[in-house]
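Hi! If you just cloned this repository, the fastest way to understand the data is to look at a raw example. We've pasted two of them here, unedited. The first protein comes first, obviously.
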Amino acid sequence: MKAGFIQFSPEFGEADANIEKALSMIEKANADLIVLPELFNSGYLFISQKEVDAVAEEIPAGKTTRALCAIARRKKINIVAGIIENFQGDLYNSAVLVSPAGYVGAYRKIHLFNEENLWFKPGNTGFNVFDLGICRIGIMICFDWFFPEAARILALKGADIICHPANLVLPYCQDAMVTRCLENKVYTVTANRTGFEERSGKKYSYTGKSQITAPDARILYQADAQNDEIGVAEIDVRTARNKKINKYNDVFTDRRTDCYKKLIKTKI
């Protein structure tokens, strides 16, 4: 199958323009699975709760999910995209998954970064894996990469590909995803945004370099740091289902869970 990402710089608060931009890029993508950045339709650097409220949408009833469902159905493509979810008045940094058959599910970001803690509730969906037939995918969002448990849980639940919408400002993630793939023998697709946002004396510069990484730690495709880009790579999900390192070692069956119990404590 072909898996890929859309990388671009959303305009803050301009949902219609951002959706249109993403749709036009999806139209050009020759892929079975495409991942869009975190909060792709809204921008990221909020300075008030009122701003966040204004761009939050219900899932799947909101206009963004409906637009993604329509193009997924027409192009016969699966899409993962980051948006702000309004669920019964509670706001979440979420990612929606749609397929040619329609809405599939959503993930709510568990590890909130910096001032996200002011605007969003921590995610409560857990780390779920969705079987699309051609592959099994897990979803994590941006700062979730910092916690190896996120990718590990998704891999243990059977994910072949971890889809990773992001608005990265720290410079480490792209390198870290090599390790996440190697230690779990999974594919990852990190869809990062580009550009910068400067509002009320605050400035975030985004790192771009969206990346598709293989279970053997090879970087199959990496975008540059600044430009709009559609990145696609051929992947074989059977590779992600073989967890053997050699004749005697397997990344899952070799785990000594009896020795890991202290990990659930705050301090060891």
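Ok, and the second one:
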Amino acid sequence: MRRHRFRFILGLLAGIALLFAVAKFINLTRTWHEFNEYPWQTLPAILALSLGYYLVKAVRWQYFIRAIDIKLPLRRSVLVYLAGQWFAFTPAGEFVRAYLLTGYGFSFSRGSAAVAVQVVFDLLSLAIVGSLAVLRYPQLSTLVQPFTAAMIVGILAFVYWPQFRRRPSSAFVPGAATATVGRFGHFYAYSRQLLGWKQLLIGLALGLVSVVMGVLVLLEVSRNHEIEVGFTQSAYIYSLSQLAGALSMLPHGLGAIEGSAVGLFHNAGVDTAHAASAIVLFRLATLGWSVVLGGVSLVLLRTPLAGPAPRSPQKPVQ
């Protein structure tokens, strides 16, 4: 726990340092002016798009937990997923969803497998969209495309590595998540099950839809700021900045996403103050909005509005 806390504090300080470093290259007075001039009547449409982004990811979450035999009603499952956003800035906040599942009698190792695979598909979807986008903007293709290839190879190695170590007759069979024992064994087996071909294709399809929704949020914010960017350019900026934030290991990429996005906008010929204002609003309409949704969902989980809860077994299901 102390180690996680130390990493969180260190990451937060690094993110703040990055923000201050970016601020040196941005006229903050002009940025504030651009922010105030934003047409706020368009904000409900942007928040609706952002809500759609999180609902797509919640549907994918429901599909994944069903695939490993965690049966929750759709309404309650969506609320569990959204409730995890309330802990967005806490160490390992994503895994709060797995903790919430333990309240319904499912082991943490089973729920954490769904959480971890969600993160993998988010990264893979961003990498694929980024690789396609940089075909038109090839400046960073030497970084993005090898990362995408490495992720695909890594997933295949994770799934099929046991087959290289065993005889063909003892190869892994999807659904047989009891081949190994122990907490890590269950986590590993369920993770591999969620990376089977069927789950891979469906999870990736939903992941790409969620990335497109995120791109549309950035595109809508940019257009309302009168920043002339198209869908392809928005996809390029969105995917690469999100990947930079994920690889930075900072809490939700704080500082890294903002700094890289402003840099990519600047590379596209957009004024830095204009770009910074758009990115601040984008982050408020996505990350900030998700924290609000998470708080509301956490409250709703304790009310009849969440629907019927499954009867918890006396012992958590492995």
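That's it. A detail worth noticing about the second one: The radius of gyration is 21 Å.
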